[in-house]
Every structure is written in structure tokens, then in C-alpha cells.
Amino acid sequence: QSVLTQPPSVSAAPGQKVTISCSGSIGNNYVSWYQQLPGTAPKLLIYDNNERPSGIPDRFSGSKSGTSATLGITGLQTGDEADYYCGTWDSSLSAGVFGGGTKLTVL
Amino acid sequence: QVQLVESGGGVVQPGRSLRLSCAASGFTFSSYAMHWVRQAPGKGLEWAALISYDGNNKYYADSVKGRFTVSRDNSKNTLYLQMNSLRPEDTAVYYCASGTYSRSDRWGQGTLVTVSS
Fold this sequence. Notes:
The structure holds 2 protein chains of 2 kinds.
Chain A: E1 4-5, E2 9-12, E3 18-24, E4 31-36, E5 43-46, E6 60-65, E7 68-73, E8 82-90, E9 95-98, E10 102-106
Parallel strand pairs in A: 2-10
Antiparallel strand pairs in A: 1-3, 3-7, 4-5, 4-8, 6-7, 8-9, 8-10
Chain B: E1 3-7, E2 10-12, E3 18-25, E4 33-39, E5 45-51, E6 58-60, E7 68-73, E8 78-83, E9 92-99, E10 104-107, E11 111-115
Parallel strand pairs in B: 2-11
Antiparallel strand pairs in B: 1-3, 3-8, 4-5, 4-9, 5-6, 7-8, 9-10, 9-11
């Protein structure tokens, strides 16, 4: 059972913008976001709430407010179709946690 | 280049044991915390275990606590996951990942563990 809650699916047209929410036991912990393309390992997209690793385009952004975090993707491309997961280290549980994942469809 | 390569997966009967390995290369393995994350077929990611950079601190998900043991050999740049008393619900692709407590920067390609009689 995920401690972090994400919408099961989101969709938008190419070129549009989409946001994916993540809520739950975030507290003061840093949130990360991962992209998992079909049949591949997850890839880090955002860390420390809003930082992008080298090589991640600025079409991807992260934000956090209170107990919720949001991943934003602008200029949607068909290659962005994937599952997206939020994750954090829950210091109160001393455990890592992931959201249930959100499937992005680019119509 | 940076690489994490898992091995040791396979088919195992319920109640038996299996040890996974994760060989790291291309970065300073001993400087990073390491995670094991698993993904059951068709399901989402589930965090399983974490070991600190020096091996002194280990943490487990409730679902594997008492059955799985994470360890590392920094002299061999290798991470391990000893899995005992395996259950059908442990069937998953197991990924190793390096990073910090709050993020996983680099991921391996995963190794499939199937627990079935």
C-alpha cells in the first residue's frame, strides 16, 4: 500500500502541458520523481523537490507545497508516454516510499 | 560509463533462499547509499531496502523485514540482497539503485525473481 497518492492516469495532447500530483506523508522530506518507459528501468527526473539532474530537459519541473508535490511536463511529446512515480524518504518511518504511479498518455 | 548490473535472479520455490548481487562501475561506489527497489509484474515500484554508504545503517520495508538482508562490499563495488523464506508475493523485478536516502540517481536493468512451486 503506497503512502503517497498519485492519480492513476493523466492524458493530454502533444505540445500541451500536464501536471501529476503526489500527496501524503511528505512532510519536510525531499521528493523525487521518476520516469519509467515501457519495459525499462526507472530514471530520475527530479530530485530535492525541484532539481533536475544533468541531461533532463527543462520541460520537466517539480514543486512542493506542504504535504503535496507536483510534476509538470510542458511541450508534451509522444516519447513522454510512460509511468511516473514520486518517491521520498519518510524519516518518521525510516523507510523509502513511492507513490502508486501515474500513467501518462499523450493523445 | 556508470553502470549497475544485477544478477542472481531466477525461479525459486516458496520458503527457499536467493541472493541477489549488484555490481557497480564507473563511479565511486563507496560514497553512495544503495537501494533495492522491486516491481511486481504489472505493478508499481516498491522500495525494499537501503544501506548507507559505509554499510553501518540498514533499513527495510515492513514487507521484507526479518527475511531480507542488505549488505555491501565496498572493496568489490558490489551490493547484495540475501532473501530468505521467500513467498509468492516476493515475485518481482528487483532493481538496485545508487544515490542518497531521498533519491535514486542511477538504476540497474533489474533481475527477475519468481517464487513458485
